[in-house]
C-alpha cells in the first residue's frame, strides 16, 4: 500500500491526513486516516522539519500499517551544507524502510536531486524527489497518477482532508 500525507496548521493546532491507496492509478482512496493535535511547534526558517515531522509520524502511526511508498508535499533532498530535506528525515525516522517520494509545488534554491514534471495541461512543474527509489522512476509514477490536473488526486485529497474547509478540520 501507498500513502499520501500532508499537514495543515492553524496557530498551535495541526491536522494531518494520510490517504491510503494501492495503485498509482487509483482514483479513490482505500482509506483516509486523520490525526489532530494542539502542540504544533512554531515555524522556524531552515527547520521546517521540526514542525512537520512529528505530525507526519503521528498520522502514519495512527494508520497502523507499514507502507511501501509514502508521498509528501515537499522535498526529500537538500544541497550539501543545507541539512536534510523533510523526506530524508521522515525516511530516517521510520522503523521500516519505505520509498519516500517528495512532490513539491514550488522550486527551492537549496533543493537537490529532483525531477521536474508537468501534469495535465499545466506548464508549471512539480518537483519530484525520492529516497529508497530512483528519482526518475518516482517521477514517472507521479506523472501517471490519477487526476487531470497538476496535483495528483491522492495528494490533493491529503491536502483537502488535512484542511479545515468542509471537513472536521482541526478539533
Describe the protein's architecture and organization:
It is a single chain. The protein is an alpha/beta fold. It has a single domain (2-162), classed as archaeoglobus fulgidus dsm 4304 fold. The chain has 4 helices and 7 strands. The chain has helices at residues 48-63, 86-93, 135-143, 153-162; strands at residues 2-10, 13-21, 31-37, 69-72, 99-104, 115-117, 126-131. The chain has a 7-stranded mixed β-sheet with strand order 3-2-1-4-5-7-6, sandwiched between helices.
Largest beta-sheet details: 7 strands, mixed
Identify the overall geometry.
globular
Low-confidence stretches: none
Rounded mean pLDDT score: 92
Q: Can you list the strand order of the major beta sheet?
A: 3-2-1-4-5-7-6
The CATH architecture comes to: 2-Layer Sandwich
What string gives the helices and strands in order? Answer: EEEHEHEEEHH
**Count of DSSP strands:** 7
Helicity, in percent?
A: 25-40%
CATH class: Alpha Beta
> According to CATH, what is the topology?
archaeoglobus fulgidus dsm 4304 fold
Q: How large, in whole angstroms, is the Cα Rg? A: 15 Å
Full CATH superfamily name = archaeoglobus fulgidus dsm 4304 superfamily
Which class of secondary structure composition applies to the elements?
A: alpha/beta
Number of helices: 4
